[in-house]
Design brief:
Layout: E1 3-8, H1 12-24, E2 27-32, H2 38-47, H3 50-53, E3 59-62, E4 73-76, H4 88-109, E5 114-117, H5 122-133, H6 145-160, E6 167-168, E7 171-172, E8 180-181, E9 187-188, E10 191-192, H7 199-210, H8 212-220, H9 227-241, E11 246-255, E12 261-272, E13 275-279, H10 286-309
Parallel strand pairs: 1-2, 1-4, 2-3, 4-5
Antiparallel strand pairs: 6-9, 7-8, 9-10, 11-12, 12-13
Helix pairs in contact: 1-2, 1-9, 4-5, 4-10, 5-10, 6-7, 6-9
Length: 310
């Protein structure tokens, strides 16, 4: 019997995620959006690709949540992007309200699901989903580190003209300016990255990684990234659905790991059928650990803003 996955938000990230999951063939998909006709039309279009792709999965689009009943995984991509003149706190509180409503709807229909928040600001939205759902911490997992790491690996591979598969790297911390590429453990074909890329050039690649989303927005003008984000979501879904136990950088609730407590922060986790099977504690340099703590404090500031608005 195929699994069932709900994707909330039929914009570019959500619809592309739904398409990628449908093409896998291991799950039926429900695509939810408040815009009438949008999820229905996109779902029908994707469904009609099934004979070409050899997928017998079923995908339906809906403006409600009844069809989501019994989902194994719920992916939340809904929310608004920051608009000109909008403050960071305005964006935070608007998306907090959206995520709160979505989580309440999801858990009423699928109380045993795993929730994957994608809405920005990601770390704070994962915290909110955790609070509202009151799920165990292994079943709320934010997507950010997989994407940030993919960007970092892309830029290193381009710089060295090697396969991306030869790059072993992790980017931890909050999703944004405070993300923490773990340079000390980054390897290229088994060699330390510091042996093959000069520090000043590596610093430039790290900064490009931090600016990865903004760089794409600067080209698109009226949109943001969705191909790499959707692929990153599906890598997490694969590990859960197929019980792969892959170690991936995800946003997880920490209770003392890395010296951080009571907060969602990007760290390496083992992802399997129960969600987070284990939080993996890497050996970090003093500088990397300090950077991770600074990143956590930036997340805590957002959480405090949400607390004051609740």
């Amino acid at each position: 019997m195929r699994k069932k996955i709900t994707v909330v938000g039929a914009g570019n990230v959500g619809a592309t995620t739904a398409q990628r999951i449908f093409e896998k063939g291991y799950a039926d998909v429900v695509l939810v959006d408040i815009v009438e006709g949008l999820p229905q039309g996109k779902a029908l279009d994707i469904q009609e690709s099934g004979p070409v792709l050899g997928s017998d999965s079923i995908i339906v689009g809906t403006n409600g949540y009844d069809e989501t009943y019994g989902s194994d995984i719920a992916i939340i991509t809904s929310g608004i992007a920051r608009k000109p003149g909008m403050s960071r706190d305005d964006l935070l509180l608007t998306n907090m309200r959206i995520v709160t409503n979505v989580v309440e709807e999801i858990i009423s229909k699928s109380p045993a699901c795993i929730i994957l928040p994608v809405t920005n600001p990601l770390d704070a939205m994962a915290q909110q989903a955790f609070r509202v759902s009151q799920f165990p911490k292994n079943r709320v997992i934010g997507m950010a580190g997989v994407l940030d790491t993919a960007r970092f690996r892309t830029f290193i591979a381009e710089e060295l003209k090697v396969s991306v598969e030869s790059i072993d790297a992790f980017v931890l911390g909050g999703h944004g300016d405070t993300m923490v590429p773990i340079v000390g453990s980054t390897r290229v074909g088994g060699r330390p990255i510091s042996n093959v890329i000069p520090k000043d050039r590596l610093d430039q690649l790290i900064q490009r990684t931090r600016d990865g989303g903004a760089e794409i927005v600067s080209y698109l003008k009226t949109g943001s990234a969705y191909y790499a984000p959707s692929a990153s979501i599906v890598q997490m879904v694969d590990s859960i659905i197929e019980d792969k136990n892959q170690i991936l950088p995800c946003t997880a609730y920490l209770e003392g790991e890395y010296g951080i407590n009571g907060l969602f922060v990007g760290v390496p986790v083992k992802l399997g059928s129960n969600g987070i099977e284990e939080i993996v504690e890497f050996e970090l340099t003093d500088g990397e650990l300090s950077a991770l703590h600074r990143s956590a404090e930036a997340v805590r500031e957002l959480v405090e803003v949400m607390d004051s608005a609740s």
